[in-house]
Amino acid sequence: MEFCLLIANHGGAEIVGPDAWRQAADYWIANYFSHPRYLRAEGKPVIMIFSPKGANKDGLAYLQGAAKKAGFAGVWVAGCGNVRAEEGFQIATAYNTKPSKGLGLEEIYPYKLLVDWNVAEWNRKDRPALPYIPVATQGWDRRPWEAKNGEGLGKGSGVSPHFARGTPEELERYMTRMADWMDANPNQVTRDRLGLIYAWNEIGEGGWLVPCKDDPDGEYLKAIRRAVLGK
């Protein structure tokens, strides 16, 4: 399995200022990019920035130059959200997306609503004019982290609408829709046809694929394999 870095530069883990970004770039290049399993697209290592508004333009420019000095063709920098090439990004993507307007907190909404929302996100006309990595949010139920009075994780997270978890068969159809969308929109995706699934182990947020007690045989992973590889 290949892997790449998702830089979670959000509250409590910010990379602040060009010097810190340069230090981070040197660390990524020295410790990750040369790993034989590190994800590359067209020979370039891929990184993803969770909060692009916190990224530093000069730091990302340094990353490109330092990577080339280290023997790489450059770096594909993907930003989760509205990003622009002049800010140092080459790819647009997201972390997770889900509907919220008009939804209450009293019921569990159907999985299909979550799926259809994400498919609509792939088709948005106002995305940045960059190659796009579509995201399939395959679960969202943050009740383990939520708390009105601070009794949840840490001080508690804000309450949000929740969605039912789909079956492995529903996930397979979801992944097939993503593959079909890529086939129909070859000029919008990356040349390597990268796609993301939220998430491997966001267990406290209702998005996970890791085999566990309710899926000991990894049926969700098998569903993805069938959709991607046809077997």
Low-confidence stretches: none
| Count of discrete domains | 2
Largest sheet: 5 strands, mixed
On the 0 to 100 scale, the average pLDDT is 92
Task: Output the helix-strand order.
Answer: EHEEHEEEHEEHEEEH
What count of helical segments does DSSP give? 5
General shape: globular
The residue fraction in helices comes out at: 25-40%
| Structural class designation | alpha/beta
Give short descriptive properties of this protein.
single chain, 231 residues, alpha/beta, two-stranded parallel sheet, 5 helices
Describe the structure.
Helix content is 30%, strand content 14%. The chain is of the alpha/beta class and 231 residues long. It has two domains: 5-93, no CATH class; 108-229, no CATH class. The longest helix has 17 residues, at 168-184. 31% of the residues are buried.
Topology:
Blueprint: E1 5-7, H1 18-33, E2 40-41, E3 44-49, H2 57-69, E4 76-80, E5 91-93, E6 108-109, H3 111-122, E7 135-137, E8 162-163, H4 168-184, E9 196-198, E10 201-202, E11 207-208, H5 219-229
Helix pairs in contact: 1-2, 4-5
